[in-house]
From TrEMBL:
Domain Peptidase S9A N-terminal, residue spans: 32-426
Keyword line: Hydrolase, Protease, Serine protease
BP GO annotations: proteolysis
Species of the source: uncultured marine thaumarchaeote KM3_17_C07
Protein name according to UniProt: Oligopeptidase B (PtrB)
Length: 703
């Protein structure tokens, strides 16, 4: 039986364009209607019937037919915006310096960098012996592999200790299933390409022939560590460690000193670390300290010591130090109420520390010789910073990245001794971009429970900020992930058309410290959604925008945010863009065979427990769709997405379409050859952005 009832009756289809002004197209299209096939998914004596459960039947013809029908409908409804999409694409691409090179970094005896070329979608990985004036060696050209694949993502890029071999892991579907390729850099000969089903991480031992890698289980969890010797088949490899607790996954790294390989066993709230001497690949991995529920610790080697960042009796994390043999724990940096210890980068004689204070990131440098600290001053009040490639253990300088909504990405080196700061590169934005033509500021909005919520803005200088402007409100608040105000030239295509770009730093992120995250998870998750609603209402109450001029966006768990907000406050906005939205919360979290489900219990709760079930059901977007009006909505999905399976946005779209009581557009666009992160090529990605930008501009009637 065909599960699709689809009619595409087009009475009038046309686009009238005068300069850059668009007149809405008069057209009549009949949207796809997914057949209902009721399935009882009740638990806890609570009746729940899922009419669209059948959409989980991946690769079956009815499912493919439905997804293609939705895509056809979406493209037909967006037909009149094709010129606008092309204009947006050309604008965004026109700002990119297509022939560009990153700042070279030292690793071993070579300087490594990537470069791009005109009209090519992917990076070219290169190196030069000695300084940057030597002859170039291309170590890996992603564009060559892209000739055979529509999607390509490189995860690990690891050069052997003798600098003769390169090991990389590649995903060619978007499903995040990686394959290992080992090549001879000089000759280009492929020595090994038979290892598959990897999670993407790998490391070399010092003998130049032994590699360690991690493998995925059926639930897409990195659960095994294997040892591989060059020339062997994968079936001959040796299992080193298997993690049987489904909450934990295996991370594989090397210490920056180069002395140890490191296993990080991590759940959402607990870690455990093992170390192995790189000179002894067949030796025993030594446990740093046993796991303790709720305790996270992260290990950094320096000399005769192991340094740890830990939340043991320290909500915002502290730094402690022990000798390699263990023993007494010295506190180096204490826990502080308003400062979160975020990251550390070790060097032979120095240490860089990244900390968050009242929302802003700051970097401090520590000198091991005289035990002095130095704070790096930044150029703006609202900015972001990150650690750049700092692989040289003996380096005399520290490299960091800097940017803001106004300032394109900059790479700085700061001398450890003189503290002289040198700009090595600033992203070049073509088309005459001038930062002084834009304004970035931070507002503080009251929340439903009396907190203060930061909203960072970007807008064109000269507009009346309180003149009821069209506004794009972006949000994400899960896992403690914090999205700071980095520059994006793509946003200019909205801001230059008079939109105010706003980013709400909601709970569930770590913007205001660890407690800000904890207050937006588990049974306090609805704070995340209420914060976002508070942000939208504040922008309207202040006259900056209004509900009829507001577009909202969120991806992945941010898509859950958008879905929840659409149910809780459907009149908040005119347009909603949920991308790869995690919306079928109850059904997904009840199915432990689905990738990442068990490991997510500590973030969302386990709905097999009645109290968590009740709370999750109260906000799950799929379970709370009602017969009421919703905003114009464009749902974005990837068919190969292992994190948020395609059926979540598909089922949600079907249910919304069946119940909603409005004439607003509801579109679903599924990229059939991509995963969680949209298209992989840099130009193909811009087409994806241009598509949803065009939807926003069209629905807000922005010329």
């Amino acid at each position: 039986m065909n599960k699709i009832e689809l009619g595409l009756s087009i009475f009038l289809l046309g686009t009238i364009i005068a300069g850059m002004k668009m007149t809405p197209t008069v057209q009549k299209l009949t949207p796809p209607q997914a057949q209902k096939n009721p399935k009882d998914v009740s638990v806890h004596h609570d009746t729940r019937i899922d009419d669209y459960y059948w959409l989980k039947e991946r690769d079956t013809q009815p499912v493919l037919d439905y997804l293609m029908a939705e895509n056809d409908y979406t493209f037909a409804k967006m037909k009149h915006t094709e010129l606008l999409q092309k204009t947006l694409y050309n604008e965004m691409r026109g700002r990119i310096k297509e022939d560009d090179t990153t700042v070279p970094y030292k690793f071993g005896n070579y300087m490594y960098y990537t470069r791009t070329e005109d009209d090519l979608q992917y990076d070219i990985y290169c190196r030069k012996l000695g300084n940057s004036s030597g002859d170039e060696e291309i170590t890996f050209n992603m564009n060559e592999m892209a000739k055979k694949h529509d999607y390509i993502d490189l995860s690990a890029y690891k050069v052997s200790p003798n600098e003769k071999l390169l090991a990389i892991t590649i995903d060619t579907s978007g499903a995040e299933l990686y394959k290992l390729i080992i090549k001879d850099i000089k000759t280009g000969e492929i020595l090994d390409d038979n290892l598959s089903n990897l999670d993407g991480s790998l490391e070399w031992a010092n003998d130049n022939k032994t590699l360690f890698y991690t493998v995925l289980d059926k639930a897409h969890r990195s659960f095994q560590l294997w040892r591989h010797e060059l020339g062997n088949e994968q079936s001959d490899d040796v299992l080193v460690l298997q993690e049987d607790d489904d909450r934990f996954s295996i991370g594989l790294h090397r210490t920056k000193s180069g002395k140890f390989l490191k296993i990080d066993l991590e759940s959402q709230i607990t870690t455990e670390v093992y170390l192995l001497d790189r000179n002894d690949p067949f030796g025993e991995w030594e446990l740093v300290q046993p796991r303790e529920q709720g305790v996270e610790y992260y290990v950094y080697h320096h000399g005769n010591y192991l340094y740890q960042i830990t939340n043991k009796d320290a909500i915002n994390f502290k730094m402690i130090r022990t000798t390699l043999k263990g023993g007494k724990k010295d506190e180096i940096i204490p826990n502080r109420d308003k400062t979160t210890l975020d990251d550390v980068s070790m060097f032979k004689n120095h240490m860089a520390v990244l900390e968050r204070i009242d929302g802003n990131l700051e970097i401090r440098l520590f000198n091991f010789e005289d035990e002095s600290w130095y704070n790096i001053e930044m150029n703006e009040d609202i900015y972001s910073v990150t650690f750049e490639e700092n692989y040289d253990w003996n380096s005399d300088f520290f490299r960091f990245g800097y940017g803001s909504f106004k300032t394109p990405y900059c790479v700085y080196d700061i001398d450890f001794k003189t503290h002289q700061k040198t700009l090595r590169k600033k992203e070049e934005i073509l088309g005459g971009y001038e930062s002084e033509n834009y304004v970035s500021e931070r507002l503080w909005a009251p929340t439903h429970d009396g907190k203060k919520l930061a909203i960072t803005l970007l807008y064109k200088k000269g507009i009346d900020l309180k003149g009821n402007n069209p506004c794009f409100l972006w949000g994400y608040g899960s896992y403690g992930a914090t999205y700071d105000p980095w520059f994006s030239s793509n946003i200019l295509s909205l801001v230059d058309r008079g939109m105010v770009y706003a980013r709400a730093h909601i709970r569930g992120s770590s913007f205001m410290g660890r407690k800000w995250y904890l207050d937006g998870k588990l049974k306090q998750k609805k704070n995340t959604f209420e914060d976002f609603i508070s942000a939208g209402r504040y922008l309207a109450n202040e006259g900056i925008t209004s509900s009829g001029k507001l577009a909202i966006y969120g991806g992945s768990a941010g898509g859950l945010l958008i879905g929840a907000v659409m149910n809780m406050s459907p009149g908040l906005c005119e347009v909603a863009i949920p991308s790869a939205p995690f919306v079928d919360v109850i059904n997904t979290m009840l199915d432990e065979s689905i990738p990442l489900t068990v490991s997510e219990f500590e973030e969302w709760g386990n709905p097999k427990e009645k109290d968590y079930y009740d709370y999750m059901k109260s906000y799950s977007p799929y379970d709370n769709v009602e017969a009421k009006a919703y905003p114009h909505t464009l749902v974005l999905a990837g068919y190969n997405d292992p994190r948020v399976p395609y059926w979540e946005p598909a089922k949600w779209t079907a249910k919304l379409r069946n119940l909603k009581k409005d004439e607003n557009d509801l579109l679903l666009k599924t990229i059939m050859g991509a995963g969680h992160f949209s298209s992989s090529g840099r130009f193909d990605y811009l087409k994806d952005v241009a598509f949803y930008y065009a939807f926003i501009l069209d629905k807000l009637e922005i010329n």
